[in-house]
């Protein structure tokens, strides 16, 4: 059970959204990381047969993408913004989508309560979808996505906008689901990947810039991460020389976390590398971004992603 | 699975405000327009005060009515016309007014001054001192000029003008006005009215009882009124239903489902058609029941299935077409443009169909038969009617078929709504 992607290209007019992407995704959780606009959603939509690629070959569990109806049968999809007819109750929404998934009535009656319990919505069966909180909607989304017991589950930015508690619960749920199937998790929140995935791919401007394990990614930057306390006025100068991956204000001083090939100063202390450090290092070295752009991208990731 | 989805779609419609607005419109139109026309005809009796009016087919009457109408319109320089089926008030310039004046001279042999004198003399007999008027017990104003005393407007078409010459002049007149005026086709034929005689009324009654088994005649009038609304109202429901996935932001969820595009589109289409046709069928059955009771009391044999037959073959195609236009356009444009498309078609059909208002049918979407009975016309144009209804049903099904294809292409991401394509172009221009 795997997904094979070979030399996949997709463009919107002149904008190249995916460029020569080749990837194999095995069973379990698979993280797709990248900045906003990197091409993650496009790749997810191609895999869900919602978008036709311009060229390349994609096989989902040995079924080519051109066999859309078969792909649909084996795929569950949770879009970036999950929504359903607002006046339907939770049960009605599940039942309607169950009919669309071709599940018989007796089977729906059995499966829907089980799944709603699994996503902790068993008390909300008669609540209208419009009355659900963001987190509840996402959980309903995941329940509907696995309603027909798909081999592949595609979840696009599922934790964006969730509070920390909901986010942890959601990650755990995904890990549980991934035991029996392929779960592709697309996100720009590094914390999600760190907590759930071992295998990841990083996309940038439609190109695959990393494909491997999280451990291997972190190893690339091991021994290059330092922390250093400097005066605030020296921070700007430091930014021009090093890749800053984190700052913590301490009165007139700032504790800076940076990446450097060599020890930046005698006062600097070596730190254990994190996925975030590795991601920023990768983006800096392989995608050729300047330091400020990278830092602003990662600050955004931290704000949204850290628990 | 089709049946389950169909039932779910029917249930969904029962939660739709647009569907209830549709129901409200249909019920209002049924109560206000249809029911008053369903008064069961009584056998005429000798010596009745009157037997109603009918269009006169007498050439002299038509000529006289045309001249009177022309004088009125010429004097006010305000001509009624329906070019391309739309009402238009035409005001002529001096040159064209002079051309009309020449035609009046040819028709009546009178100069305009002489015509004016006669008109003034005619009008003056009604403009007497207020003291001459009185009010009767029921509050009606009684004119001092009795019907017997009234002098008719004595403007006749001269004898030297044959009916063919008259028609030629009318055609010239119609061209001066710009077409679609009171002086052409059915508009000209319908200018002259005359009282019906006892024989007319009796013949009509027996025709309705014998040839139409009573209900047939009424079913056509029923279809005439309701058909007008059913050619436009369903498009509102179809557009609302067509846009619901987009509005609820769950389009992609439906797209990735296992169910084939054929089943999704057809179940939704069929649910709308059935739910919109159901109230019509209930009305038809209710009226049929009234007629069955009446027939039983009077010992008259009626056709118990006429309303259902006519509703299914005459009205259902209207729902099929308006709904299919709704889903087809909404799938292409992902907007309410279908309402404009169907609305335009409906207006053109409605106004252009005025000339077939009492039968004759044509190839228009709106089939008119606004006269009780008129069985001979119905029989004469029955083939036209059948071709019309079968044709529109086929068109509706073809549109649904194309919608299925478009829907499948959209699911695969191979076709995007036209609006999306345009907005992409716009954003490119901005960039």
Descriptive account of the structure:
The complex is a heterodimer of chains A (307) and B (431). Chain A has 307 residues and is α/β, with parallel strands linked by helices. Chain A is 37% helix and 29% strand. In chain A, helix 3 crosses helix 4, helix 5 packs parallel to helix 6 and helix 10 packs antiparallel against helix 11. The radius of gyration of chain A is 21 Å and the shape is globular. Chain B is mostly helical. Chain B folds into two domains: 272 residues, no CATH class; 144 residues, no CATH class. In chain B, 65% of the residues lie in helices and 4% in strands. Chain B has 17 helices and six strands. In chain B, the strands form three sheets. Chain B has a two-stranded antiparallel sheet with strand order 1-6. In chain B, strands 2-3 form a two-stranded antiparallel sheet. Chain B has a two-stranded antiparallel ribbon with strand order 4-5. In chain B, a hairpin with a 5-residue loop joins strand 4 and strand 5. Chain B is globular, with a radius of gyration of 28 Å.
Largest sheet of chain A: 6 strands, mixed
Give the overall pLDDT of chain A as a whole number. Answer: 87
Using the CA coordinates, give the radius of gyration of chain A. Answer: 21 Å
Count of alpha and pi helical runs of chain B = 17
Number of strands of chain A: 14
What is the CATH C-level name of the largest domain in chain A? Alpha Beta
Q: Number of DSSP helices of chain A? A: 11
Topology:
The complex is a heterodimer of chains A (about 300) and B (about 425).
Chain A: E1 2-12, E2 15-26, E3 28-34, H1 40-47, E4 55-60, E5 63-64, H2 68-74, E6 75-78, H3 90-100, H4 105-118, H5 134-145, E7 152-156, H6 164-177, E8 182-187, H7 190-196, E9 199-204, E10 207-213, H8 214-219, E11 225-231, H9 235-241, E12 243-250, E13 253-259, E14 269-270, H10 275-286, H11 291-305
Parallel strand pairs in A: 3-8, 3-9, 6-7, 7-8
Antiparallel strand pairs in A: 1-2, 1-4, 4-5, 9-10, 11-13, 11-14, 12-13
Chain B: H1 2-13, H2 17-37, E1 53-55, H3 59-76, E2 79-81, E3 88-90, H4 94-108, H5 112-124, E4 134-135, E5 141-142, H6 163-177, H7 185-189, E6 193-195, H8 198-210, H9 215-230, H10 233-247, H11 251-255, H12 261-298, H13 306-333, H14 337-352, H15 375-380, H16 382-411, H17 418-430
């Amino acid at each position: 059970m795997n997904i094979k992607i070979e030399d996949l290209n997709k463009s919107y007019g002149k904008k190249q959204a995916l460029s020569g992407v080749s990837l194999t995704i095995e069973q379990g959780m698979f993280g797709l990381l990248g900045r906003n606009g990197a091409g993650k959603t496009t790749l997810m939509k191609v895999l869900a047969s919602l978008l036709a690629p311009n060229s390349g070959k994609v096989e989902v569990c040995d079924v080519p993408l051109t066999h859309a109806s078969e792909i649909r049968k084996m795929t569950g999809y949770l879009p970036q913004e999950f929504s359903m007819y607002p006046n339907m109750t939770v049960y009605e929404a599940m039942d309607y989508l169950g009919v669309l998934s071709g599940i018989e009535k007796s089977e729906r009656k059995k499966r829907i309560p089980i799944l709603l319990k699994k996503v902790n919505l068993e008390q909300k069966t008669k609540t209208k979808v419009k009355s659900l909180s963001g987190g509840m909607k996402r959980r309903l989304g995941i329940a509907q996505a696995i309603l027909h017991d798909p081999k592949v589950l595609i979840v696009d930015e599922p934790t964006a906008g969730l509070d920390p508690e909901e986010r942890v619960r959601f990650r755990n749920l995904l890990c549980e689901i991934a035991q029996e199937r392929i779960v592709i998790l697309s996100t720009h929140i590094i914390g999600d990947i760190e907590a759930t995935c071992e295998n990841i791919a990083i996309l940038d401007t439609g190109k695959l810039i990393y494909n491997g394990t999280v451990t291997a990614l972190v190893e690339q930057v091991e021994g290059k991460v330092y922390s250093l306390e400097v005066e605030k006025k020296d921070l700007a100068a430091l930014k021009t020389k090093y890749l800053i991956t984190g700052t913590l204000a301490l009165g007139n001083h700032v504790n800076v976390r940076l990446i450097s090939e060599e020890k930046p100063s005698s006062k600097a202390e070596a730190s254990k590398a994190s996925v975030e450090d590795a991601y920023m290092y990768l983006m800096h070295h392989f995608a050729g971004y300047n330091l400020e752009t990278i830092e602003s991208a990662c600050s955004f990731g931290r704000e949204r992603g850290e628990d | 699975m089709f049946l389950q989805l169909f039932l779910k779609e029917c249930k969904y419609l029962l939660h739709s405000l647009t569907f209830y607005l549709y129901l409200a419109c249909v019920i209002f139109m049924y109560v206000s327009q249809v029911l008053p026309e369903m008064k069961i005809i009584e056998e005429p009796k000798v010596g009745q005060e009157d037997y109603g009016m009918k269009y006169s087919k007498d050439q002299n009457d038509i000529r006289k009515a045309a001249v009177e109408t022309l004088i009125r319109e010429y004097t006010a320089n305000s001509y009624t016309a329906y070019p391309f089926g739309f009402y238009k008030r035409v005001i002529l310039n001096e040159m064209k007014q002079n051309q009309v004046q020449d035609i009046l001279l040819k028709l009546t042999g009178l100069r305009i001054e002489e015509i004016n004198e006669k008109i003034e003399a005619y009008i003056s007999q009604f403009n007497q001192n207020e003291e001459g008027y009185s009010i009767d017990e029921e509050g009606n104003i009684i004119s001092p000029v009795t019907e017997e005393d009234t002098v008719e407007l004595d403007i006749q078409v001269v004898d030297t003008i044959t009916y063919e010459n008259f028609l030629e002049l009318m055609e010239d007149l119609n061209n001066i006005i710009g077409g679609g005026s009171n002086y052409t086709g059915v508009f000209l034929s319908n200018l002259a009215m005359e009282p019906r005689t006892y024989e007319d009324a009796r013949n009509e009654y027996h025709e309705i009882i014998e040839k139409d088994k009573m209900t047939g005649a009424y079913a056509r009038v029923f279809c005439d009124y309701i058909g007008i609304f059913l050619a436009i109202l369903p498009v509102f429901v179809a557009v609302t239903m067509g846009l619901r996935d987009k509005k609820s932001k769950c389009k992609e969820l439906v797209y990735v489902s296992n169910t084939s595009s054929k089943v999704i589109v057809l179940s939704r289409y069929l649910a709308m058609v059935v739910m919109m046709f159901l109230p019509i069928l209930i009305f038809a059955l209710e009226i049929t029941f009234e007629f069955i009771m009446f027939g039983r009391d009077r010992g008259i044999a009626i056709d118990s299935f006429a309303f259902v037959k006519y509703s299914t073959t005459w009205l259902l195609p209207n729902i099929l077409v308006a709904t299919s236009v709704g889903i087809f356009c909404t799938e292409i444009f992902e907007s309410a443009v279908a309402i404009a498309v169907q609305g335009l078609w409906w207006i053109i059909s409605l106004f252009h169909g005025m000339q077939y208002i009492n039968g004759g049918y044509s190839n228009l979407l709106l089939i008119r038969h606004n006269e009780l009975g008129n069985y001979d016309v119905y029989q004469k144009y029955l083939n036209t009617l059948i071709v019309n209804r079968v044709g529109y049903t086929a068109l509706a099904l073809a549109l649904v078929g194309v919608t299925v294809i478009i829907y499948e292409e959209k699911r695969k991401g191979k076709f995007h709504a036209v609006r999306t394509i345009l907005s992409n172009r716009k954003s490119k221009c901005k960039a």
